[in-house]
Amino acid sequence: MAEKKAKMSTDEKIYNIPLRSSYKSGTRIERTKKSVKAVKEYVTKHTHTPEVRISEKLNTTLWSGGAKKPLHKITVKVTISEGTASVRLPDEITLAEEKKKFLDKKDEKAEEKPDEAVKEEPEAEVNDEQPVPEDKKDEAPSGEEKK
């Protein structure tokens, strides 16, 4: 029984959701609001999950035309895990995928460059004396007088 809980599977599906019929009735100002509700209802109906979460980018895309002119249809990617359906755009990367890519790149760089001993460069000697211009090299320093 415990093994079944540990092996919770995640399903991913892509849906084309028609939105035009959802906002035909009602006031013009509430069209996009009704479209967002239509996305949630469509996903609930097709995935049989009580909870639906819409990503921020998908919400921004739905509201891109303003409240009065929403999209007519939209293609979304639905991920079902643990009784929750997450809805996002098909090309949108989730935070977990982004972290995985970052860690993979980091591992590749570590493999390419094996641990090398850090070579310390000898520090140049510090010379407190100021450089003397060429035309004044023949002259004696100010502290000494020429004899």
**Helical content band:** 25-40%
The helix-strand sequence is HEHEHEEH
CATH architecture of the domain at 12-93: Roll
Overall geometry comes to: elongated
Low-pLDDT residue spans: 1-8
Give the CATH H-level superfamily of the domain at 12-93: Ribosomal protein L31
Number of helices: 4
Backbone CA Rg: 34 Å
Report mean pLDDT, rounded to a whole number.
Answer: 80
Q: Major sheet, described briefly?
A: 4 strands, mixed
E-strand count: 4
Could you say which structural class the secondary elements and strand pairing correspond to?
Answer: alpha+beta
In terms of DSSP E residues, the strand content is 15-25%
For the record, the CATH class of the domain at 12-93 is Alpha Beta
Q: How far do the termini sit from each other?
A: 105 Å
Q: What is the name of the CATH topology of the domain at 12-93?
A: Ribosomal Protein L31e, Chain: W
